């Protein structure tokens, strides 16, 4: 019996020593999981692809997860402002909060959909490897190896971005929201109707002149692709998608949440596949 009791205590000690990482968005949770492997327990808060991230309301279980977390990853740039009060209400000594926007020098008012920026993963990987190694020196070699492995896995994705930029730079496109805007910029695409997109993102009514300009772009096929937020649908964006299809403008859906069954690099690759196909190169 004493032996069994000792085994139970040992198991509890091991469980207690496992690092706990909480990511506000699941693409960052996936990156953290790929780096930490089995040495950390990773929880992602926003992970439902059928949920509008802007309508998210945190539950008491989220507060409990944050209170026990060793590392927290937030997007920042006012994308997940609900995290601030939650973190303040569940102060935890020694907890490290990684703000992705801060890593990139971004601020409120900038495009907050940072995960589509090719600069994000290298910056986040470097920071996470350093933080996890400091928290768990015994696992440092694992974190470093996994971080390097993830960078290697992303290298073909970034090489494809460069190749597509060489092929499509200067191509005019549009979108109902600026979700894919940072990747579009990396691809050298020229994004039109940005005032309209910001209004939709911020939940305000687009100006009639912006609406008319958007519709005119579609009717006259001044844009080669229309991107839309597949997680947020309403009558306005549905009408623009319908107009695009009638006008022969390809429509590409993008999401704010990493889909189930894909890792981060597969998700980015899938998006590039859709863009390449829409522009006639796939």
Give the strand line-up of the largest sheet: 2-1-3-4
Largest sheet: number of strands, sense, barrel closure: 4 strands, parallel
β-strand number: 8
Shape: globular
DSSP strand content? 5-15%
* Sequence stretches where pLDDT stays below 50 over 5 or more residues: 4-15
- What's the CATH C level of the largest domain? Alpha Beta
Q: What is the alpha-carbon Rg in Å?
A: 21 Å
**Helix content class:** 40-55%
CATH topology of the largest domain: Rossmann fold
Number of domains: 2
Tell me what the structure shows.
With 282 residues, this protein is of the alpha/beta class. The protein has two domains: 2-157, Nitrogenase molybdenum iron protein domain (Rossmann fold), CATH 3.40.50; 169-278, Rossmann fold. It has twelve helices and eight strands. It has helices at residues 2-17, 26-36, 60-68, 83-89, 100-104, 120-135, 140-168, 181-186, 194-201, 208-219, 235-247, 264-278; strands at 19-25, 40-46, 71-74, 96-99, 172-175, 190-191, 226-229, 251-254. Helix 7 (140-168) packs parallel to helix 12. The relative contact order is 0.12.
Helices and strands in order:
Elements: H1 2-17, E1 19-25, H2 26-36, E2 40-46, H3 60-68, E3 71-74, H4 83-89, E4 96-99, H5 100-104, H6 120-135, H7 140-168, E5 172-175, H8 181-186, E6 190-191, H9 194-201, H10 208-219, E7 226-229, H11 235-247, E8 251-254, H12 264-278
Parallel strand pairs: 1-2, 1-3, 3-4, 5-6, 5-7, 7-8
Helix pairs in contact: 2-6, 2-7, 6-7, 7-12, 10-11
């Amino acid at each position: 019996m004493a032996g069994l009791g000792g085994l139970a205590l040992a198991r509890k000690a091991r469980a207690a020593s496992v690092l706990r990482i909480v990511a506000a968005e699941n693409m960052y949770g996936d990156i953290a999981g790929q780096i930490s492997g089995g040495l950390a327990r990773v929880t992602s808060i926003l992970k439902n692809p059928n949920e509008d991230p802007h309508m998210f309301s945190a539950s008491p279980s989220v507060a409990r997860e944050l209170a026990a977390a060793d590392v927290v990853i937030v997007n920042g740039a006012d994308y997940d402002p609900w995290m601030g009060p939650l973190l303040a209400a569940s102060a935890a000594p020694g907890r490290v909060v990684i703000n992705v926007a801060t890593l990139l020098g971004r601020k409120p008012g900038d495009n907050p959909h940072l995960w589509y920026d090719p600069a994000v993963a290298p910056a986040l990987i470097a920071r996470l490897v350093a933080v996890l190694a400091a928290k768990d020196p015994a696992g440092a070699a694992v974190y470093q190896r996994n971080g390097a492995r993830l960078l290697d896995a992303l290298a073909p994705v970034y090489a494809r971005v460069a190749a597509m930029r060489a092929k499509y730079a200067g191509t005019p496109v549009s979108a109902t929201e600026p979700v894919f805007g940072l990747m579009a910029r990396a691809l050298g695409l020229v994004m039109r109707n940005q005032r309209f997109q910001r209004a939709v993102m911020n939940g305000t009514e687009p100006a009639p002149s912006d609406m008319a300009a958007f519709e005119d772009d579609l009717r006259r096929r001044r844009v080669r692709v229309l991107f839309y937020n597949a997680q947020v649908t309403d009558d306005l964006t549905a009408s623009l998608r319908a107009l695009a299809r009638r006008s022969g403008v390809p429509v590409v859906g993008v999401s704010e949440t990493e889909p189930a069954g894909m890792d981060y690099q597969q998700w980015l690759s899938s998006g590039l596949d859709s863009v390449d196909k829409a522009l006639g190169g796939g």
